[in-house]
């Protein structure tokens, strides 16, 4: 099994592998081009995202600067708005549902490293997927780690570190992120 196949199947893999490095280089080149686009170059941005991502809605709005590891492991459904300086370490699939809003400075990090220093020092990586369901709002400067699902309609407070699944329809915040309360009809402002 190749290192890429190991990565895609959720096994420990070596990030120093030549094929892995070439795939990352392609993503770096595409994100570099994306980050140099002008604000009025929407069609060019969409073209780059379509080439970069595994699946990309034409309603994906991602503000530069944007970074990712591979791109092909990112799947976007419907309208999403990603604010400035987002990083997606997509060593496993990152799935983002329609109507998701992701605040500036957010990091979605599927990648992790072994606890044993000798393994880590040899370039080995572990990885778990991230799922952000429909209608989720993630505040500024949040980190979401691999293996996490954020349930439909939930809101993650700014500065949170999400290390465990968050159920649907809640407000959650903190480090580690925890559920504060349910979202109710009383929260409507219109």
Describe this structure in words.
By secondary structure, this protein is of the alpha/beta class. The protein contains four helices and 19 strands. The chain has helices at 3-8, 18-35, 42-52, 117-121; strands at residues 13-14, 60-62, 66-68, 74-76, 80-82, 86-89, 94-96, 100-102, 107-109, 111-112, 124-127, 130-132, 137-138, 143-145, 149-150, 155-156, 161-162, 170-174, 177-182. It has a seven-stranded mixed sheet with strand order 2-5-8-13-16-18-19, with no helix packed on it. It has a five-stranded parallel sheet with strand order 3-6-9-14-17. It is globular and about 55 Å long. The model has no long low-confidence stretch (mean pLDDT 96).
What is shown here, in short?
The chain is α/β, with parallel strands linked by helices and 190 residues long.
Short descriptors:
single chain; 190 residues; alpha/beta; seven-stranded mixed β-sheet; five-stranded parallel β-sheet; 4 helices; globular
Across the major sheet, the strand order is 2-5-8-13-16-18-19
Radius of gyration: 17 Å
Q: Globular, elongated, flat, extended or rod-shaped: what is the shape?
A: globular
Number of strands: 19
Order of helices and strands: HEHHEEEEEEEEEHEEEEEEEEE
The proportion of strand residues reads 25-35%
């Amino acid at each position: 099994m190749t290192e890429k196949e190991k990565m895609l199947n959720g096994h420990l893999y070596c990030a120093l592998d030549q094929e892995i490095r070439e795939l990352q280089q392609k993503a770096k080149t595409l994100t570099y081009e994306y980050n140099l686009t002008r604000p009025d170059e929407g069609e060019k941005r969409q073209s780059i995202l379509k080439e970069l991502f595994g699946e990309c809605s034409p309603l994906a709005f991602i503000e530069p600067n944007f970074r990712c590891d591979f791109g092909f492991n990112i799947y976007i459904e419907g309208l999403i708005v990603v604010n400035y300086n987002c990083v997606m370490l997509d060593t496993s699939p990152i799935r983002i549902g329609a109507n998701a809003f992701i605040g500036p400075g957010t990091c979605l990090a599927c990648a992790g490293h072994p606890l044993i220093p000798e393994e880590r020092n040899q370039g080995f990586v572990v990885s778990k997927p991230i799922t952000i369901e429909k209608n989720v709002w993630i505040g500024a400067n949040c980190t979401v780690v691999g293996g996490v699902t954020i349930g439909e309609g939930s809101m993650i407070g700014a500065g949170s570190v999400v290390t465990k699944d968050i159920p649907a329809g809640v407000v959650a915040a903190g480090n580690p992120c925890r559920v504060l309360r349910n979202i109710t009809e009383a929260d409507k402002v219109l």
